[in-house]
């Protein structure tokens, strides 16, 4: 386990009966259905609004730092306009300066106001579920939002779901404190915040609900969070959609593939094996970068700035690694656009994106790991398609869409230990539920292979419910 910033101690016992006023008393005395209907809607509204605010903050920060200062427009997915981005760098010398400056300013804010807001955020939210659902400070929510917008908006390789998860979970932690919820209810609330925040920012409500029940364990599923998750995630999606629109993030990717024979399914076996290997490398390289960063000299401000500089220099050679990269994943699914990207970049990009994310987030920057995982998977699928199409092998589809979508699901679904949730989320993000026959084969193989290891991208996950219960019982015995 990596070293974690020390959080201020919070009370673990429920506050007095007066906590939260009449609304808090109503919740504490309500039955299961009424309690989670009220709490679910409240958490959903907060998560949806938090996702909207962070999305807009990141959008305008990116337009100013990369667009105005560096003169570079990154591609955007169909759900955000479908802009193909700049053909090249207008001011290439400005790219490393902007990535370094953004990382430096982000690190300064985090170090000054909330050191626990460093990193990708999801691990901290998961740890709060298992350890203390009241432990996330309100200040960390605001710091995380600003710091992540600066890191990703300046070109750092990170996703927006990790910050959104910590923002939503932070508000749920505040609700737990203010409303005097029990520890068990607080744990469910924070888990719902994680799922609702990620589901909202990706416009994937069903996947968000399933994610809330699966992301806190490596090899288990929390059924208590599933039904409230439908209410919470659906409400968050409604709030975000009402303000930003309901289109899928990647539009409706053409991933139709007619299975007329069984043997072409072997291609999805190949995707499962290769995506599992790349996902394994993603986790190992990222965690190694975190461990190495702790051992290297320099403070919590200098290290992220150096990481930002290195990412900026890498970006001059491989622009696809800059920022979130969702627009590049969109282009990878389009045959004409993919054929215009040099083959060597397509093949190298999954590893390059892993290195860039490790330099941006593993050194102490602020951003998520889910988004880069989707981009990494997209180019795993694109590389397999390009190489198969180039060699003329049988069974390769006419367009790369189905390989790209399935590899998105497979790569991050396996390494996050939440394969079902990620498979549903990517299907919602791409409008591609027709890929399920190939996806279940690829995702199943990758998840089985990953289960043979002890590797996960989220180190705060507990093995299962029994492990988590034993840990909580041990802490309670220690207090007694």
UniProtKB/TrEMBL annotation:
PANTHER family the UniProt entry points to? CHLORIDE CHANNEL PROTEIN CLC-E
**Species the sequence originates in:** Mycobacterium spongiae
Q: Which UniProt keywords apply?
A: Chloride, Chloride channel, Ion channel, Ion transport, Membrane, Transmembrane, Transmembrane helix, Transport
Where is the protein localized? Membrane
Positions of region (Disordered): 1-21
Please state the span of the N-terminal signal peptide per the UniProt entry.
none
Instruction: Tell me the lineage of the source organism.
Output: Bacteria, Bacillati, Actinomycetota, Actinomycetes, Mycobacteriales
Q: Which domain of life is it from?
A: Bacteria
List the membrane topology term(s): Multi-pass membrane protein
- InterPro entries (UniProt xref): Cl-channel_core, ClC, ClC-type_chloride_channel
Name of protein: Chloride channel protein
Which GO molecular function annotation, any one, does this entry have?
chloride channel activity
What sections of the protein cross the membrane?
36-58, 93-111, 188-217, 229-253, 265-285, 305-329, 341-363, 369-388, 400-427, 433-455
Where composition is biased (Low complexity), the residues are 9-19
GO terms for CC? chloride channel complex
């Amino acid at each position: 386990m990596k070293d974690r910033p020390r959080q201020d101690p919070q009370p673990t016992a429920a506050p007095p009966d007066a906590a939260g006023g009449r609304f808090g008393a109503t919740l504490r005395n309500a039955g299961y259905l009424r309690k989670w209907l009220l709490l679910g809607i409240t958490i959903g509204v907060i998560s949806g609004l938090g996702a909207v605010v962070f999305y807009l903050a990141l959008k305008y920060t990116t337009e100013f730092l990369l667009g105005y200062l560096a003169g570079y427009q990154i591609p955007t997915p169909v759900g955000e306009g479908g802009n193909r981005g700049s053909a090249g760098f207008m001011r290439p010398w400005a790219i490393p300066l902007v990535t370094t400056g953004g990382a430096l300013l982000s690190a300064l804010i985090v170090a000054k106001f909330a050191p626990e807001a460093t990193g990708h955020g999801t691990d901290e939210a998961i740890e709060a579920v298992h350890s203390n659902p009241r432990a996330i400070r309100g200040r960390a929510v605001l710091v995380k939002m600003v710091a992540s917008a600066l890191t990703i908006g300046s070109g750092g390789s990170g996703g927006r779901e990790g910050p959104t998860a910590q923002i939503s979970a932070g508000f749920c932690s505040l609700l737990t404190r203010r409303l005097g919820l029990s520890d068990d209810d607080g744990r469910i609330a924070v888990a719902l915040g994680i799922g609702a925040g990620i589901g909202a920012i990706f416009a994937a409500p069903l996947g968000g609900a399933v994610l809330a029940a699966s992301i806190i364990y490596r090899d288990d599923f929390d059924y208590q969070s599933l039904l409230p998750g439908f209410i919470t995630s659906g409400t968050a999606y409604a709030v975000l959609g009402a303000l930003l629109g309901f289109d899928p993030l990647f539009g409706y990717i053409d991933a139709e593939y007619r299975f007329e024979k069984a043997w072409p399914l072997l291609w999805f076996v190949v995707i499962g094996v290769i995506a599992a290997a790349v996902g394994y490398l993603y986790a190992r390289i990222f965690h190694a970068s975190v461990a190495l960063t702790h051992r290297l000299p320099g403070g919590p401000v200098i290290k992220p700035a150096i990481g930002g500089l290195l990412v900026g220099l890498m970006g001059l050679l491989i622009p696809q690694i800059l920022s979130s990269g969702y627009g590049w994943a969109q282009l990878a699914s389009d045959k004409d656009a993919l054929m215009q990207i040099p083959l060597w970049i397509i093949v190298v990009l999954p590893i390059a994106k892993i290195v860039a994310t490790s330099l941006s987030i593993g050194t102490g920057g602020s951003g998520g790991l889910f988004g880069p995982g989707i981009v990494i998977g997209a180019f795993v699928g694109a590389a397999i398609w390009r190489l198969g199409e180039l060699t003329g092998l049988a069974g390769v589809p006419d367009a790369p869409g189905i390989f790209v979508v399935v590899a998105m699901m497979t790569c991050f679904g396996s390494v996050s230990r939440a394969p079902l949730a990620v498979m549903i989320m990517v299907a919602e993000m791409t409008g591609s539920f027709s890929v399920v026959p190939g996806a279940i084969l690829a995702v199943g193989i990758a998840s089985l292979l990953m289960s043979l290891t002890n590797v996960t991208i989220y180190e705060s996950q507990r093995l299962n419910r029994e492990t988590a219960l034993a840990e909580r019982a041990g802490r309670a015995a220690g207090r007694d």
